[in-house]
Every structure is written in C-alpha cells, then in structure tokens.
Specification:
This protein has 106 residues and is mostly helical. It contains four helices and no strands.
C-alpha cells in the first residue's frame, strides 16, 4: 500500500465513522421520550461489547475447552460480585490449570 492509498482509506474510514455518529444527532431534534426506544438505546453498548468479547474469550487460547472453563469460572465469580482483578486472576489460573490437565492427560 502506498501513501496515496493510505490517505484514501483513512478518509473513507473517518467519513464513515463520523457519519455513523453524526446522523443520529442530526436526525433527532428533540429528546427521545419513548420508553421502549430509550431502553433499546440504553442496552446497545452492552450488547455490542458482549457480542465482541464472548467469541474472543473462547478463542483467546489454543484450546476452546480451557477457554470455556476460564470464561465459566469468571462468570461465576462476576455474578458473586467479586472485583475485576479477582475475576481476571481466577479466570487466568483456571485456564492455565485446565490447559495443564488437558496436556498431561490426567
């Protein structure tokens, strides 16, 4: 890729990103009062984050089984209202131990 192509790609990316964010502001002139629309818009960031994070969590390691074990244990500790650091550490340890067990054939 040469410099000219880079700037063209960058301009297209910047334009599309800007339009996605600017069109709703231009289209909606007043405050949204519909309860269902407000509820929908409230949960969009969480939905998108979950949709991007869940598959990445399953394929982050070389073994889907150990990744699923770490994800499951992490979800259990998160539901138990443990801190982010505790959840991350426990999940990492679970993945490590599960991977060792699976490689050892125990």
């Amino acid at each position: 890729m040469n410099g000219k192509e880079f700037w063209i790609y960058l301009a297209i990316l910047a334009g599309s990103t800007y339009l996605i964010r600017a069109i709703p502001f231009a289209a909606v002139q007043k405050k949204i009062s519909n309860v269902y629309v407000r509820s929908f818009l409230y949960y969009i960031p969480y939905t998108v984050l979950s949709a991007m994070t869940f598959p990445a969590a399953l394929y982050a390691t070389g073994n889907v089984v150990s990744a699923a074990a770490g994800l499951g244990v992490g979800m259990v500790f998160a539901v138990m209202k443990k801190g982010l650091t505790v959840v991350a550490l426990i999940s990492c340890v679970t993945v490590f131990v599960t991977d060792l067990i699976l490689k050892q054939g125990i």
